[in-house]
Design brief:
The chain is of the alpha/beta class and 320 residues long. The chain has helices at 44-50, 123-128, 130-143, 159-170, 181-190, 203-210, 229-232, 250-255, 269-280, 297-306, and strands at 5-11, 19-24, 32-42, 64-65, 69-77, 88-92, 106-110, 114-116, 150-154, 174-179, 194-197, 215-220, 235-243, 259-262, 288-293, 312-316. The protein is built from 10 helices and 16 strands. It is globular and about 65 Å long. The chain starts with a strand and ends with a strand. The chain binds NADP nicotinamide-adenine-dinucleotide phosphate (NAP). This is NADP-dependent oxidoreductase.
Length: 320
């Protein structure tokens, strides 16, 4: 199989259009796994990479296969790997320095980035899960919040936010979730106690009116650096804020008697396994709000960038 042609979605440079091309099926090295992908999950990071989010920090190997998240069946393995051909797996595949990603019929990744799919969990859901699930898990855990405390999830209507609402609510946390009116009922179903309609006025103003004494913690998924002040000001003294977008200025936060951090999701196999198990047991839902074939990856990325995500986007992959 290795070396024969496969279809993959690549960019040949920064700020170029993703294109479906033929590349040779890659070969797994020691500690690596070649997976025949059935589905790839789309994340905002995928189009941010094209725009140069990692430019200057790591070498980019072009043509760069796009995509981090994927699910499929093990095709072959390198030395020292405990997976065997035929295993159903999911996890992260992006390796910018080697030009590797999940928007392809076959992809190689480190065995340490994969977990087995439990039972009969479907590939689409498994592909939707890794980055958003791990981020939600790590961010909620990163606040250190506990039962009875109040957590604002700013950006609750998107892929990470929906998972974070469920994980926090399952711990007995009182969740305030931002969304538009259309998705409010769904977020309540997922466990949100309060809804803030961010399309009706500034979130900070609405939360302050409802909680004049302040709230305990914030997971912020939308605010960019330099703009966090009004949201952070909602916290009680010693409250904690975590940002997915590098918006926390540690000095400023400390000077205000608050705690804060910029967090980066770590999709460890143990985290992936526990999230998949929660999905299998009906304790965690990943809503797929847009599905398209691999051939339409460029449109799916443009759609993600345009906003209005109310769940996850998944690319379905059928070997030619
Ligand atoms: N640090 C990490 O490791 C890590 C991991 C995963 C994700 N992220 C980042 O975290 C962010 C969220 O990721 P995601 O996958 O959840 O993205 P997503 O699925 O695109 O969801 C983003 C959601 O935020 C909503 N939103 C936009 N502006 C808002 C505002 N002012 N107030 C409230 N909600 C607003 C969007 O709705 P509208 O479009 O209708 O405005 C959308 O529902 C992205 O920037 C992503 O790159 C970081």
């Amino acid at each position: 199989m290795e070396g024969t042609p496969m279809r993959a979605v690549v960019v040949t440079d920064f700020d170029t259009e993703p294109r479906l091309v033929e590349l040779p099926v890659p070969e797994p090295g020691p500690g690596e796994v070649l997976v025949r992908l059935a589905a790839a999950g789309v994340n905002p990071f995928d189009w941010k990479v094209i725009e140069g989010a990692m430019r200057g920090s790591v070498h980019h190997a072009f043509p760069l296969v796009l995509g981090s998240d994927g699910a499929g069946t093990v095709e072959s393995v390198g030395e020292g790997v405990s997976f065997t051909p035929g295993d159903r797996v999911f996890g992260q595949f992006m390796d910018i320095e080697q030009g590797r990603g999940s928007y392809a019929e076959y992809a190689v990744t480190k065995a340490a980035k994969l977990a087995r799919l439990p039972g009969d969990l479907d590939f689409d859901t498994a592909a939707a899960l890794p980055t958003a699930g791990a981020a939600a898990h790590d961010f909620v855990e990163g606040t250190g919040i506990g039962p009875g405390q109040t957590l604002l999830i700013n950006g609750a209507s998107g892929g990470v936010g929906q998972a974070a609402v469920q994980l926090a609510a399952a711990q007995g946390v009182r969740v305030i979730a931002t969304t538009d009116p259309d998705t409010a009922v769904y977020l309540r179903e997922l466990g949100a106690s309060e809804i803030v309609d961010f399309t009706a006025g500034p979130t900070a103003d609405q939360v302050r009116v409802a909680h004049p004494g302040g709230i305990d913690a914030i997971v912020d998924l939308v605010t960019s650096p330099g703009r966090l002040e009004p949201i952070a000001a909602l916290l009680k003294p010693n409250g904690v804020i975590v940002s997915s977008n590098g918006a926390v200025d540690a000095e400023l936060v400390a000077a205000r008697g608050l705690r804060g951090a910029n967090l980066y999701a770590n999709a460890r196999p143990a985290t992936l396994a526990s999230l998949a198990e929660a999905v299998e047991h009906g304790q965690l839902r990943f809503r797929i709000d847009f599905k398209a074939p691999l051939e339409e990856a460029a449109d799916a990325l443009a759609r993600s960038k345009a906003g209005k995500a109310r769940g996850k986007t998944v690319l379905t992959i059928e070997a030619a």
